[in-house]
Specification:
The chain contains 10 helices and 19 strands. Strands 1, 2, 3, 7, 8, 9, 10, 11, 12 and 13 form a 10-stranded mixed beta sheet that branches. Strands 14-15-19-16 form a 4-stranded mixed beta sheet, with no helix packed on it. By secondary structure, the protein is of the alpha+beta class.
Length: 376
C-alpha cells in the first residue's frame, strides 16, 4: 500500500523525525477544544521552534483558555538548536539577544524547554501569532531554559514535566510508540497523539482499545510529513518542494486519544443484509468474515471478523470487541474456499497462482488479520 514503505523504513532504521503539518493538527484538534480550557498542555516530543504542535497551541493559547503550554525537544533531533542562536544568563534563562553577562549556548548541548503562561500582543500588530514568540519569551511569566539531560521523554526531568501536565499532545517516535503510550497510561494522563493504525495490533495496545482505555480520533489516512534534509530520497511517497524541503507520505496514519469525543458515540449506519454466501464462516472460530467495514450486515448479531480499519468508526455503545485475530486453536483466523478470487487483491491472486502451480489439487486456506466484534 502506498505510504507504508516509509513506515517500515521508520521502524527498521528508527528514522523518527516526521514533522506534522499544521493543517492536519488543526483538523483534528478542533474537535477537542472543550477539553483544553484551563489545562496545562505538554508537547514533549517537539522542538518548540520547529513543531507545529507548539505553534498551534501558542497561536491559540488565549482562545483555548490554556493555563500553561510546555514543550521540550530531544538532543539528537537533526534540527535542535539550528533555527535560532541562544544566549544564557546566570539564572539559566535563554534569550535571543546577547544581553549583558549572557553567554552563547554550547552547540553540543541544546535541548531545552519552553513554558508559556501568558500570551499577549507584544509587537502591537493587533493579533497574537508566531511573530510574537520572541517577545513572549522576554516576558518574565514565560521561560526558555536548557534541560539538564537530553530531552528524552523517559528522562527524570521530562517525567516531572509530564506530572505537571493535564493533556499530552504530540507526534511521538514511531519506533517508541509502545513505550510512549505505556508511560501515559502509567501516569494516568489524558492525551491526543498521532501514530500508525497498525499500532492497534501491538499486544501492548490492543487490550487498551478492547477495554476502552484508548480509542481512535477523527482523522485517518495517508498524510505528508516534513522530514530532515539527511533523509534519503525515495522513488515513491517522497517529494521535494520549491524551497528544497523534503517530504514523505506515511500510510494508515491516525490519532489515538483517551479524551471523550462525539465521534465515538455515533452509530455506524448498517444496510447490507446477511447471507451465508457473502459472509463465509471461519474454519477455526464460530464467526463470519467481513472484508470491509461498510459491509457489516445490518441483521446479524453473532460474532464477526472485521478489518482493523473498523476501529476508526468503533462505537462501544453499538459494538463490543470480543477478541483479536486468533481462532479457538490459537492460530490466525482462516476459512477455506474453492473459488473466492473476489476476496483477493492482485498480490493475493498472484500468490494463489503460485500455490496452484505447486499443488494444483490443494485446497486453499487464507489467514486473516481481523478484530472479532459483536453487535450489542
Amino acid at each position: 500500500m502506498a505510504g507504508n514503505s516509509n513506515l517500515h523504513d521508520s521502524a527498521r532504521n528508527k528514522q523518527d523525525e516526521f514533522y506534522t503539518q499544521l493543517s492536519l493538527i488543526e483538523s483534528e484538534l478542533k474537535h477537542y477544544k472543550v477539553h483544553f480550557k484551563g489545562k496545562t498542555i505538554l508537547c514533549n516530543c517537539d522542538d518548540p521552534f520547529e513543531s507545529n504542535f507548539f505553534k498551534y497551541f501558542a497561536m491559540n493559547f488565549n482562545s483555548l483558555g490554556l493555563k500553561k503550554l510546555i514543550a521540550t525537544c530531544y538532543a539528537t533531533s537533526p534540527i535542535t538548536g539550528k533555527e535560532l542562536d541562544f544566549f544564557q544568563d546566570a539564572k539559566g534563562q535563554l534569550s535571543f539577544l546577547p544581553l549583558p553577562n549572557a553567554l552563547p549556548v554550547d552547540e553540543k548541548r541544546r535541548p531545552y524547554r519552553v513554558e508559556i503562561t501568558e500570551v499577549t500582543d507584544e509587537n502591537g500588530d493587533g493579533r497574537v501569532d508566531l511573530a510574537d514568540v520572541e517577545y513572549l519569551l522576554r516576558n518574565k511569566k514565560n521561560a526558555l531554559t536548557l534541560l539538564d539531560g537530553d530531552g528524552d521523554f523517559r528522562s527524570a526531568e521530562c517525567i516531572e514535566l509530564l506530572k505537571q501536565a493535564d493533556i499530552i499532545v504530540t507526534n511521538p517516535p514511531f519506533s517508541l510508540f509502545r513505550e510512549y503510550i505505556a508511560q501515559l497510561i502509567e501516569y494516568n494522563k489524558a492525551f491526543i497523539v498521532i501514530g500508525n493504525m497498525n499500532a492497534v495490533t501491538y499486544k501492548e495496545i490492543f487490550p487498551l482499545i478492547a477495554q476502552n482505555v484508548l480509542w481512535l480520533g477523527y482523522n485517518c489516512g495517508h498524510f505528508w510529513f516534513k522530514v530532515p534534509e539527511t533523509y534519503e530520497e525515495k522513488k515513491t511517497d517522497f517529494k521535494i518542494d520549491e524551497s528544497g524541503q523534503k517530504w514523505r507520505r506515511m500510510g494508515n496514519i491516525c490519532w489515538f486519544t483517551n479524551l471523550d469525543i462525539e465521534k465515538r458515540h455515533e452509530n455506524m449506519v448498517l444496510f447490507r443484509p446477511y447471507s451465508p454466501e457473502e459472509y463465509p464462516t471461519y474454519d477455526n472460530y464460530d464467526a463470519i468474515n467481513v472484508n470491509r467495514t461498510v459491509d457489516i450486515p445490518c441483521d446479524y448479531y453473532g460474532v464477526m471478523g472485521v478489518p482493523i480499519t473498523f476501529l476508526s468508526q468503533y462505537n462501544p455503545d453499538q459494538f463490543e470487541i470480543v477478541a483479536f485475530r486468533k481462532g479457538n486453536d490459537g492460530k490466525d483466523l482462516v476459512y477455506s474456499f474453492s473459488d473466492s478470487s473476489h476476496f483477493f487483491n492482485v498480490e493475493r491472486e498472484r500468490e494463489r497462482e503460485r500455490e496452484r502451480e505447486r499443488e494444483s489439487k490443494r485446497r486453499t486456506v487464507q489467514p486473516y488479520f481481523r478484530i472479532l466484534i459483536r453487535r450489542k
